[in-house]
Amino acid sequence: MAALPVYRWRLAPDGYATYRQLRARGLRPGGQGVAAQMERPRRQRGPLVAYLYLIDQAKPVRPMTPAKWAALAKANTARRTCPECRRDAGYVIPTSLGMCVTCAFPEEQRAA
Question: Is 60 strand, coil or helix?
Answer without folding.
Answer: strand
